[in-house]
Specification:
There is one protein chain. This protein is mainly alpha-helical and 131 residues long. It has 2 domains: 38 residues, no CATH class; 57 residues. 60% of the residues lie in helices and 8% in strands. Strands 1-2 form a two-stranded antiparallel ribbon. Helix 3 packs antiparallel against helix 4. The radius of gyration is 27 Å and the shape is elongated.
Amino acid sequence: MNKIKQNKDDNKIIPTPDKKPYVRPRNINLSIKITQEERDMIERRMAQSGMSILRAYIVKMAIDGRVIHVELESVREMIRLLSNVSNNINQIAHKANATNNIYAKDVDALREYVDELWEQTRAILQKLSKL
């Protein structure tokens, strides 16, 4: 069962667990004035970071200086390409074992997948280098 404790400073009702001391982790109010343009810019950057709570975003930026949001779509694409390469290698190995031949067409297809994979890797590394 939770007890309810009234905070005298800001009149917020905060639930606290039984038999544990009440501790408010953030008890200092910090207030700044900004323009609407600055507010819009902060909200745009907050949305880009993937964060949705303004207070958390502002505290994170004030303490760490930056919030890094990694776009995982290119990583997912790289994983898909890796899976394709892996499947093709297995198919080529099965054909080679069954026929004692490796077909140039299969090797060319594999080479194309590897080239795509390297292209995707370079794109990811380029994006990471800009952080």
